[in-house]
Amino acid sequence: MRAQSRASRVVMAVGVVSALSLLAACAGGEGAPIGANADDNSTAADGSIVLEFSQWWEPELPKGSLRGMMDEFEKANPGVKVKLISAPYASTQQQTVAGAASKTLADVVGLDGAWVNDFSKQKAITNLTALMQESGYDDSELASQIKVDGNTYMIPVVNFVYPMFTNDSLLAKAGVNAPPSTRTEFVDAAKKVTASGKGNSGWVLPLAQDAPNGIQNDVMSWVWASGGSMLKDGQPDLTNSSVKSVVEFIKELNDAKAIAAGALTMKEQDKVEQFTNGRVGMMIDSLAHINLIRENAPDLKFSISAIPAEDGYTGKRGMPYASWGIGVSENSKHKKEALKLVEFLMSKDTNSKLSSVANAFPGNKESVPDFVQSDEMFKTAFDIWNKGVPANEFTGLPTAEDLMRSFDVELQKTLAENQPVDTTLNNAQKAWSAKF
């Protein structure tokens, strides 16, 4: 599974003591060395500067591809070497939290957007706006930047979009000839697939509270798809009509038993498994799972399309996404060189190459991944991406996982206990306001 599905998960702030305990616990594992500031290892024997670059990307990419890019960077920047500190996402997550708390982050650090607020407040990652201005870096080609209090702390390097997947065979057998484009069409299709029998369900919705990213990817994505928002002036706004209509929409599907059983304890990987096994008609999921589904179910006929919008909506559709982000340690001794590495990864050619091998969309507006020329489904996704607006309001929020979980708790009360929608939204609003 690609890291962007996990990348939508977030890290809660931890104290220095617990963070250091995590660091100690990971000390013997893969990617255990962390932070150029833990000891003075920032100069090679030949006098070259050594940049440490911690990330979870290398295990997700074809073998040798990221190292090859670093070799290209070193060739173009004599006197600078890059040491990759690579580990799976979960390990990198733990180590980055520990490094942020103890001020021992690597010079260049892979970031999940949901970590940025906490790390910036800890002064663990540097203000990239100021660093780019000092270095004269032109950021006009960057597709997006993640800001806190008006300053950039993370740059999305590649983006993983979350469109709607449809099992075309199940839909056709249920009398649905095309993927739905509106909520009314979606409800109709979901009910028809469920009524077709053989234990099939119209939609799969993961709402496990211990991995609550379903609130981001599978719930709020409906709000963003129709131009709505869960925020107002940067503060929680969960009682507005856009959010309410989505919760009512989900309740309608739940009451009609059109959602796959076990939603309240289901995680993202369970959702993908159910779709791959041909048991559900529709799901919202990461584009990167296309190849996984093809590999595990070569006979499954499926397609992707934009998330259906509210009836009558004609504006640009918000497209949920997750990113491999990048930042620079505040305590790095080599910020200038670190920014050069960031600039290299964001350059048109390198970003095209990286997005191609990652099956992702580029963070440089001028870059085009190779697969959009050779794979019709990826080309369709790229067209959806370009016609819509990237949307993920959880990025940059404080304790984003807690926000997802508190909303999840209340939503489950509506679905399982018939709690009134207004009560659910008012309770979630109170919980969120306390976090802000």
From TrEMBL:
Keyword match Signal: yes
Keywords of this entry: Signal
Signal sequence interval, chain numbering: 1-27
Domain of life the protein comes from: Bacteria
Residue ranges of the TM segments: none
Coiled coil: none
Pfam families assigned: SBP_bac_1
Keyword Signal: yes
UniProt name for this protein: Sugar ABC transporter substrate-binding protein
Lineage, top ranks: Bacteria, Bacillati, Actinomycetota, Actinomycetes, Micrococcales
